[in-house]
Automatic annotation (TrEMBL):
Binds 1 potassium ion per subunit. This is Bifunctional NAD(P)H-hydrate repair enzyme. The gene is nnrE. It comes from Salinimicrobium sediminis. It comes from the Bacteria. Residues 228-500 form the YjeF C-terminal domain. GO terms for biological process: metabolite repair; nicotinamide nucleotide metabolic process.
Length: 510
């Protein structure tokens, strides 16, 4: 699913009115009716106080339609108009008159803090103050109204956007954003819904299709692409019956140091579970017995040094290299990594201490093979690209970074972002149970395996992130968030692949 900017959504609205030959009031009625239907489906006529806060633009017009339909269905509704300006949209005025004409209980005008109503914990609040068009900070008394709503602890449903949140830009005053329990947004999700700084304000999200112009939606490039099951499935390559282990690539995992051999075993296991035809591990001598025991399907080569990687020398011809897991940052290891970068120009997947070495030796970045994948968490990213002002600035810095070095960057988080110079992909699988030691090592193995099988590095990163998250979902469903371990995620990788086809077949033989 695409994410569109506020200006693109505005253009989609305009073309819809033109091509479908409907008025903006009719489009508003269509969209708001769908929100009403969802509220009514959930409440089923239960009588609780419903307080609707409407702005004086089109988002407020949506709120007026919702209020009118709820009143007409017998709910206990009070509509408040947040009168922050003398300017009103025409659509707002039409629906304001419709509310007045169908009920004696006219909307209550709010002009200052003195007008704020009491809001109780058991109330149902509908936030329709500002929508996707907001592009400036809230005036002080309206910002205080937002804080008043948030402090009430009432259940809050936001229409299209939590008020105070901007679709395509950062908000400095986070206290002036509605903290919604549930957001129903129109047609497409918005970028701010997935940024670490602003995603918590959205709550549970539902995207409703209000039938905007299909041609525009299909042909317009989005600012980002959400990756869920259908998108991941489209990337998957089925296996040929007459293939063999050589068909699916040789992945070389380089990593480990004394006390950190387990990380390499997780990466190798994940690579095997993700379908690598062959997996070899290059590790310090101290890891030999451990790795041969934990991952018997992998071949193990050892460094001359007992405890660290001091030189990287192998007589193999891998399609891809995964580097950095547990290697540490000793001087000998840094020198060995530099030699690896100078000698091999096949794609690499670099994580953990590999990233830390790059951040301390920025000249190494120019040696990265084109199409390599870096998989930092936020602190590792900061060490690579420097500090950022906000999440939107961070994305621009990442795009500049990936453009300069012709690489792909996977920023791990609740929503993992895969970024190139031209594309942003936002993953939707995964859960809090994956916040566990070794989870990132597993991701490195999955992406490495997919590149080795012939996936383009960008496809491997996007599909690998989704499968990793889905494997975590399957593991947590069985074990709970608290009990999910990285090894459980690796073991569920096959189930995650099978899940792509769950509705089409039950036979795992693909």
């Amino acid at each position: 699913m695409k994410i569109l900017s506020a200006s693109q959504i505005k253009e989609a609205d305009r073309l819809t009115l033109e091509k479908q030959e409907i008025s903006s009031v009719d489009l508003m009625e269509r969209a708001a009716t769908m929100v009403f239907n969802e509220i009514h489906r959930r409440l089923q006529g239960v009588q609780i106080p419903i307080k609707i806060f409407c702005g004086i633009g089109n988002n407020g017009g949506d709120g007026l339609v919702i209020g009118r339909l709820l009143i007409d269905s017998g709910y206990d509704v009070t509509i408040y108009v947040v009168n922050y300006s003398d300017q009103r949209s025409q659509e707002f005025l039409v629906n304001y008159d419709r509310v007045k004409n169908m009920t004696k209980k006219w909307p209550v005008l709010l002009k200052s803090e003195a007008d704020f109503p009491e809001i109780s914990y058991g109330d149902f609040v509908v936030d329709a103050i500002f929508g996707v068009g907001l592009n400036r900070p809230l005036v002080e008394w309206v910002a205080n109204l937002v804080k008043h709503i948030n402090n009430s602890k009432a259940f809050v449903l936001a229409v299209d956007m939590p008020s105070g949140l901007m679709a395509d830009a950062a908000v400095e005053d986070k206290e002036s954003i509605i903290r919604a329990n549930f957001t129903i947004t129109f047609q497409v999700p918005k970028m701010a819904f997935y940024m670490p700084e602003t995603a918590p304000f959205v709550g549970e999200l539902q995207v409703i299709d209000i039938a905007l112009d299909r041609e525009f939606l299909q042909n317009t490039p989005g600012s980002a692409q959400l990756i869920s099951k259908p998108e991941a499935k489209a990337l998957y390559r089925p296996r040929n019956k007459f293939s063999h282990k050589g068909t699916y690539g040789h992945a070389l995992i380089i990593g480990g140091s004394y006390g950190k051999i387990g990380s390499v075993s997780l990466t190798a296991l994940a690579a095997l579970r993700a379908g690598a035809g062959l997996v070899s591990i290059y590790a310090p001598k101290c890891g030999y017995d451990i790795l041969q025991t934990l991952v018997p399907e992998a071949m193990v080569l050892t460094d001359p040094h007992l405890e660290i990687l001091s030189s990287i020398d192998f007589d193999l011809d891998p399609e891809v290299i995964g580097f950095g897991i547990g290697v540490g940052t000793k001087e000998e290891t840094v020198t060995a990594f530099e030699g690896l970068l100078k000698q091999y120009k096949i794609p690499m997947v670099i994580d953990a201490d590999g990233l830390n070495i790059l951040s301390k030796n920025v000249e190494f970045l120019k040696l990265l093979p084109e199409g390599s994948v870096l998989t930092p968490h936020p602190k590792e990213l900061e060490r690579l690209i420097g500090k950022w002002k906000d999440d939107f600035d961070k994305l621009e810095k990442i795009k500049d970074f990936t453009t300069k070095y012709k690489i792909i960057l996977v920023l791990k988080g609740a929503y993992t972002f895969t970024v190139t110079s031209e594309n942003i992909f936002i993953n939707t699988s995964g859960n809090p149970g994956m916040a566990t030691a070794g989870s990132g090592d597993v991701l490195t193995g999955v992406i490495t395996a997919l590149i080795g099988q012939g996936y383009e590095p960008l496809q491997a990163a996007v599909l690998g992130v989704y499968l990793h998250g889905k494997a975590g979902d399957l593991a947590a469903a069985e074990l709970s968030y608290e009990s999910t371990l990285a090894g459980d995620i690796a073991k569920k990788t096959g189930a995650a692949i099978f899940d792509l086809f769950e509705t089409e077949q039950t036979n795992p033989k693909q």
